[in-house]
Structures are given as structure tokens and as C-alpha cells.
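Exercise 3.2. Students should predict the tertiary structure of the chain below and write it as C-alpha cells, then compare their answer with the key that follows.

Predict this chain's 3D structure.
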Amino acid sequence: MKKPMERASGLIVAAGASRRMGFDKITARLAGRPVLAWSLAAFEACEAIGPSVLVCPGSRREEFEAIAAPFAKFRWVVPGGTARAESVLNGLSALETFSPRLVAVHDAARPLVTPALIWAVVAAASDCGSSVAAEPVSDTLHRAGHTGLLAETVSRDRLWAMQTPQVAGYSVLRTANEFESAAGNAPTDEISALIRAGLRPQPVAHDGWNFKVTYPRDIALAEAVLALRKSPE
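Answer key:
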């Protein structure tokens, strides 16, 4: 496998509130270890990733430091902010002394990410400046009106569902998130901020599982995927 032109620092965001889950999904057990540990392990094993940072809830820093301890690349565990942009900025500040050119931002709630997928997205960003793991939209989409009833069909042509990791240059990520934070915006991912900043990220399609653990049922599905990966061909 050809290596990307340069490595990226990892920035895993684990500071969310898990409101839809009903319990803390990031530390929930998944096939014998915390959900978060699966992402940490994938970044640790990826040759495209260098020194990295984990962003966690400020009140639980020691707990998250213990989870990250076995993974040598995660040199910093820092508290998150009240919004995603603030959390990412805290992580970028921790990476400042290392001065990485590229940063790979990843949601800890996506435990099925693989070293190969991380490598592919970093390689794409090395070529075109910014990139994201993504999946072409295949479902039929309809928009509801103010009454909650379906009122408009939305074309899925050229629509992509965003995943993570999302990779871009350190400087542009910092500038874009500083703008979002100062403007009081609440982007749900870095690609939203980068597009508003004028960038045109490259989507990296893949045929593996990389869904976000959002509801309790997703834990069981993720365990099934992990078991399938372990099974012989």
C-alpha cells in the first residue's frame, strides 16, 4: 500500500452528551471494551497518523485519560467546550506545539472506522487539501412542511452522507472553527465549516461499515459487524 505524502495528527471528539442514546455511548461496552477504545485503536494502528489528541467532557478527564492510556499516539487528553467547534478548537490548541500540516477529526461515536479508511482519507487530503469519508445517498428523500407532513421530494443526485474522519490543514481548520464559534454557529461537522470557508473537500467513498452509534440498537449492530470482521473468509 502506497503511503500518503505526509502524516496527519488525529483529533478524536468524545465530548458529546449522548442525548438520543439515553446513556453515555462513548464509554458503553462494545465487544468487551469502551466504544471510544475502538476508534483510538484504529488511529493508533494507522501509519498515516502521528501524535494525536482526544477531546473529552471536562468533568471526566481522568476517566478518559485511563481509556486513552494504552494508545501511545494520544499524547493529550483535553476538555471539550459547550459546542463542537469549541471542542475542536481545544484539540487544535493542544496540537499547536506539534504544528501538524494535516489534522484528521473523527467522532468517537464511529467505532467501526478502520486504519485503511483513515489512511485513504488522509491520502486524499494530501492530494487536494481536504477530504471526508462519505457515502452516496441511496434512500429516497422527502422534506416535511411546517405541519410535519411530507411536502417535497429532494433529489438525491450528487448528495453525500458525511462520516468521519474529516481531514484538512491545521490552519484552515482552526480558522474555520474560530469563525463558527465567534458567529455562534453550531456546525455538526468540520465539512460544514470548511465549505462555508470556501473549501471544496473531496468525498472518499468506501464499501465498509462506518456508521455512527446513535441509538441502543446500534451497539448490537456494531458488535455483529466486529464479529463478522473476525470470522474467517
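Discussion points: The helical segments are 35-45, 61-68, 84-95, 115-128, 170-183, 190-196, 216-230. DSSP finds seven helices and eleven strands in the chain.
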